[in-house]
Amino acid sequence: MYTLIHQDPRFYLVDKHPGVGFHREDDQPGLMDALREGLGDSALWPVHRLDRITSGLILVARSAEAARALGEALAEREMEKYYLALSDRKPLKKQGRVAGDMAKGRGGAWRLTEGRENPAVTQFFSFSLEPGLRLFLLRPRTGKTHQLRVAMKSQGAPILGDALYGGSAADRGYLHAYALRFELDGERFAFVCPPAAGEKFAGESCRARLEELGEPWRQPWPGA
Question: Does the annotation count 15 as an active-site position?
Answer without folding.
Answer: no
